[in-house]
Every structure is written in C-alpha cells, then in structure tokens.
Design goal:
Radius of gyration: 22 Å
Strand content: 15-25%
Number of strands: 8
Shape: elongated
Number of domains: 2
CATH superfamily of the largest domain: NAD(P)-binding Rossmann-like Domain
Strand order of the largest sheet: 3-2-1-4-5-6-7-8
CATH class of the largest domain: Alpha Beta
Largest sheet: 8 strands, mixed
Order of helices and strands: EHEHEHEHEHEEHEHHHHHH
CATH architecture of the largest domain: 3-Layer(aba) Sandwich
Number of helices: 12
Length: about 280
C-alpha cells in the first residue's frame, strides 16, 4: 500500500547549520516536502542528496528564494539578521495567503516581519540551538499577532522533529536565547576548562578529553534517565567531608550563580543591540 504524500511544503531559506538541521529533521520525519536554499553550490550540495530535500544554490538559481517561498506553506528564514528585511521584501509578493513565516534570526522581531509581509501571512519567531543537528534541540517559539493556534501547532510540530519546544511570549525569546540558545557554548567552555585542569594533573590531552567529555555525557544521560532534580544528583555524588564536597565549596565560593547572571545579562544586551541594528 503506497504511503500518503506529505500534507505540506516547508521552505528553508538560508539552510546553513541551524536551518539545515531543521530541514534534515523535517525531511526525516516524512511530515513535509522540504525545499532548501543556500548562496553557494558547496553549501547546497550538503543537503542535495538527502531524501525528501530539494536543495538549491542561489548562485545557480538567483530566483530560488522567491520561487521556493511561493511553493511553500511554511517558510523558515535562516539568513543573517541584517539580510532579513531584503529577503522579506523579495518573497512577500509571492507568498500564498495563509502561509506561515518563521524566523530563525536572532534579534529580529515579529513586528519587523509583519510590517514587510502581507496581512494574510502569519509570523512566528523561533530560537533553536545547535543540538538540533543530533535531534536534541531546545527550541523557543513565540507567536506574532497574526498567528492562530493552528499555526502555532503546525510550527511546533516541525521543531519537535529535532527536539523539544518551549512556547513563550515574544518578550521572553531573547532571554531564552541567552539560556538554551547560547547554552551549548557554556557547556563546551566548562568542558574545555575541566580538560585543561586534567592536563595540569598529568593526563595527556587525549585522556583529559575522554575523561571530561564522557563525564558530561554520562551525567546528562543520568539526569535524563533518572528524572531526579540536579541538586539531588549532586548531593548523591557529594559525600560529607569528602573530596567532591571540598571541590564544590571552591566553586560555590566563586559565586557561579552571579557569574552566570552577568554572562546571560551580557548576552541579552547584545541581542537587544542586534534588534536595534547595531
């Protein structure tokens, strides 16, 4: 018995690392036909041989953003923030009534999109993170003023093909980006620094990397599998008057809470600068 065709078409305009990850997830789920565009042949070739994806290079087909948007029910905009207004002006006349446009661009508001697109088009703003590449993303999703509950459900379903989704009001989306959006970089920095400490204690770089990376991977897996609060899992490792307790005391003396507060505040300030065009 033949399988039914996907019910709708998704166009990913600017299918780089993040847009490409979403394109892969949606195509693999079989829930939609996917069209992907990139500026260069080289970038387009990365997705060209994947089942369910039609991948185009703008240097070969300059009209492909407009043509892809005209064909799609859902359009994901993955170009750099500064390029968004020009792209929206290009595709606006070709969009179908009832189409949904989803921003992947940091700092660009739904109001900016709605001002440049027809009133018949719904807009949502998303903030995925790089674990989308392995289908373990956290995606923040905020609806614009014209998005219906059905629009939100459809877009949520797309992002759930590459992880979990948290729906928030738009005024929270930049703050969410400082936590889950930038969060993988914070984890990698911790891994780098702990590996450096391991090397300082005589381990080879290879040993240090194995020790630290597998510890982070294992700790995350245990957190997920156990369903325990991280505080309880930390307590289980931290024996009274033991070595871990002594190490934790040093880290707590450094006031990590305040440090992360300042770091995420800095990220939020930069997001607002991007929104203002600076």
């Amino acid at each position: 018995m033949a399988s039914s065709a996907p019910s709708f078409v998704v166009a990913v305009l600017g299918a780089g690392s993040m847009g490409g990850a979403i394109a892969r997830g949606v195509a693999a789920s079989g829930s939609a036909d996917v069209i992907a565009t990139n500026r260069s042949r080289q970038k387009a070739a990365v997705l060209a041989d994947l089942p369910g994806i039609r991948s185009y290079a703008l240097e070969v087909s300059p009209e492909r953003n407009r043509l892809s948007a005209a064909e799609a029910d859902v359009i994901l905009v993955g170009v750099k923030p500064a390029m968004v207004p020009d792209l929206l002006r290009e595709i606006a006349p070709s969009l179908r009534p009832g189409a949904i446009v989803v921003s992947l661009a940091a700092g660009v508001t739904t109001a900016t999109y709605e001002a440049l697109l027809p009133e018949s088009v719904a807009v949502l703003r998303s903030m995925p993170n790089t674990p989308a590449l392995v289908s373990r993303a956290v995606t923040g999703l905020a609806a614009g003023s014209r998005a219906s509950e059905a629009d939100r459900a459809r877009v949520r379903g797309l992002f759930e093909t590459v992880g979990v989704v948290v729906e928030v009001d738009e005024e929270q989306i930049d703050a969410l980006g400082t936590i889950s959006g930038s969060g993988p970089a914070y984890v990698y920095l911790l891994i780098e620094e702990l590996a450096r400490a391991a090397e300082g204690k005589g381990f080879t770089p290879e040993q240090a990397r194995l020790l630290v990376e597998q510890t982070f991977i294992g700790a995350g897996a245990l957190l997920e599998a156990s369903g325990e609060d991280p505080r309880e899992l930390r307590r289980q490792v931290t024996s009274p008057k033991g070595t871990t307790e002594r190490a934790i005391a040093v880290l707590q003396d450094a006031d990590l809470g305040a440090l992360f507060g300042r770091a995420t505040d800095a990220a939020l300030a930069r997001s607002r600068e991007l929104a203002a065009g600076s």
